[in-house]
Amino acid sequence: MSKKSWHLNRRTVLKSAGVCLSLPWLECMAVEQKDAPKQRFFGGYFAYGVPMPKDDAGDRMTHGWFPVGTGQDYRAPVMHESFMPLRDKITYLSGLSHPAMRSTSAHKGADYFLTGANILKTYDKQSVSIDQYLARSLGQETRFQSLVMSSLGGINRPYRSSTLSFDRSGRPIPAQNKPAEIFRRMFGSVTDSEKNALASRGSIIDEVLGEAKDLNRRLGANDRRKMSEYLASVREVERMTERSKQWQATPKPKVDASRLELAANPATPREYLTVMYDLLALAFQTDTTRVATFQTACEEAGPTDGFPSAIGISNSSHNLSHEKKNYAKVAHYITFLNEMYANFIKKLDSIQEGNGTVLDSTLCFYGCATSKTHKAINYPIILSGGKNMGFKHGSHLHYEDNVPLSNLFLTFANQLAGPTERFSDSTSDITEVVG
């Protein structure tokens, strides 16, 4: 189909007109989207597990997390009411976990949630997270190959990670947690210090590579292997530096920040989580990135442990998670987290893109690496979106505990990144989520 004069390029409109990015979908943009369909991935995490009253308990439907029944006729407990308007675009999965980590301390959950790595005895076996694996394919045409976010920020320490994302060598990728800075990086002006930093980084990399080449000749076999791994990391930094330099000359989308509470912080959890999810939606809507992760809370004492205060609960989220009889408070808190996340995917589903929505082109994976009282089994998981990548929804799928969660990641890789034989400890695809 030829492109007529009235077929506007959406990115051009956003740049030249300087309007807010809540533009309606225009018919004259349809050709561009049909010719270049997008594929996106989001990975989200919440801490400390979920309430799990017994199946025959009187509060099973009011305080329980997992749906009752399987297939399309499942019954969703009260805490999932916020998701039900999108019932045909979400899937609940139960029974899945990472086999090697089932006996671990539950506080390590974020460290291996997206990697499936066996770090039970040593962190040296940490491996690439599924988001970074997918970013190598999905992130080549965007300003940021991926967006890594968490409420605590940085990486914290091993076994108390504050990031979900790990590079190809298993190294943690620092997460961003300040809304104003995230917004500036995505939509603000490039500062002189950033330009100078890139120039300096390029010079240092050249020097390091030159010296390393000379040193490598004098090393033994084992040290040469270690040096080779190190140099691979340096070259990855070099590649990302060149990428950043090329994007510096490309104008950023213009976004109206007046409705974003960019000053929010974890001390005001409702406002903070809202703006962090809003920034993620904007990142996808503006095609600033196509891969993102968000760890809502770190599994140790800290500012994110006070999130229940958003709904008037004085207990810490960690304290709530150890309740064994009266689940009212922890259920109320998990309901709040569900509502925050539901608002995010509803927002993605409200943004028209071609013949569908942004959610239809975004596979969203959300959950936790523990179930009842920090047990590292039977992860609570919600999968949503991705219709345009072949994913189907509307069911509760239960699996026996011999099925690794990495099987689901293998399915993600095969659908989004091309033929993949294995991811972490995967044994096969999970075919029930695609159709």
Description:
- By secondary structure, the protein is an alpha/beta fold.
- It folds into 2 domains: 37-183 and 252-433, 3-Layer(aba) Sandwich (Alkaline Phosphatase, subunit A); 189-251.
- The chain is built from 12 helices and 11 strands.
- It has helices at residues 10-17, 30-35, 60-63, 109-112, 130-138, 179-187, 192-216, 221-248, 269-285, 317-321, 328-350, 406-416; strands spanning 40-45, 90-94, 147-150, 156-157, 160-161, 291-295, 352-353, 356-357, 362-367, 381-385, 396-398.
- The strands form 3 sheets. A 7-stranded mixed sheet has the order 3-6-1-9-10-2-11, with helices on both faces.
- The protein starts with 9 loop residues before the first helix and ends in a 19-residue tail after the last helix.
Which descriptors apply to this entry?
435 residues; alpha/beta; Alkaline Phosphatase, subunit A; seven-stranded mixed beta sheet; two-stranded antiparallel ribbon; 12 helices; 34% helix; 10% strand; globular; disordered N terminus
Q: Considering the protein shown, what is the CATH homologous superfamily of the largest domain? A: Alkaline Phosphatase, subunit A
The percent range for helix content is 25-40%
SSE-based structural type: alpha/beta
Tell me the number of helical segments per DSSP (H or I, 4 or more residues long): 12
Question: Secondary structure elements and their pairing?
Answer:
Elements: H1 10-17, H2 30-35, E1 40-45, H3 60-63, E2 90-94, H4 109-112, H5 130-138, E3 147-150, E4 156-157, E5 160-161, H6 179-187, H7 192-216, H8 221-248, H9 269-285, E6 291-295, H10 317-321, H11 328-350, E7 352-353, E8 356-357, E9 362-367, E10 381-385, E11 396-398, H12 406-416
Parallel strand pairs: 1-6, 1-9, 2-11, 3-6
Antiparallel strand pairs: 2-10, 4-5, 7-8, 9-10
